[in-house]
Amino acid sequence: MSERDVVFRETFIRRFSDAEERETLQRFGALVLSWAVSTGDHFLEGESGLTAGELAAAAADLRHLGRFLEAAIEDVEGSITDTADAHLAHLARRWLSQLDDLAGAIEAAVAETEAGP
Amino acid sequence: MSDRSESTAAGTPAGTPTTSWEDAPAFREVFLAHFPPMAADALREAGRHLYDAAIEHPVDDPVEPWVRARVRALAADLRFSAQVFATLADSRESAGLTIEEHALATCCQTWAAEVVAVCLGVEGALEREAAP
Asked: ipTM of this model?
């Protein structure tokens, strides 16, 4: 996993069509990450144990992708003129369901761990 | 833009699900997890401003329709998430894990595989759409 990829979401980075702008953002992100890990956790480097908080963050990123997908579907509904896009929107509903199920399972496991035996 | 939830005085810890993707459009939660809740809130807010600025900036010559561009970005983020779960699964080898943490790490291996499966579905659909 590259440090350049840890900070910004791809759904954000790809808003920038200029490759140089994307490169600048990713280098800036890597710099900020290096500051953050020098004073905090290192879980993405595998140097410390697994905590429920780290897993909750990973699950929240899946939830985010689900909401992003949901918004994309809503945006195009009723205005799709491209059959390929219509097919993608149909598939996107299935992916959304899979992501929500997965995030729900992770959140439940984290909650169970935090509740203790 | 959707309504955005207000931060509490103590801040919102990383990993707290948001109701809209626009609440945290720029920074990954696995990055924000490195910061205390108030700092994470500040970064989310900064990320919202960055995103708002970005969407004011027109995309030059989009190479593919917007729906497909968004799905392609989604696939890239899924790849990243799968790597995160795989990394967390590797922590099973770390000394000092509690029994509960070890159980969670074992689950991470399954979750990484499930994210990869969704990602392969997304990437496969994109390839089929791109095929002549």
From this structure: 0.85
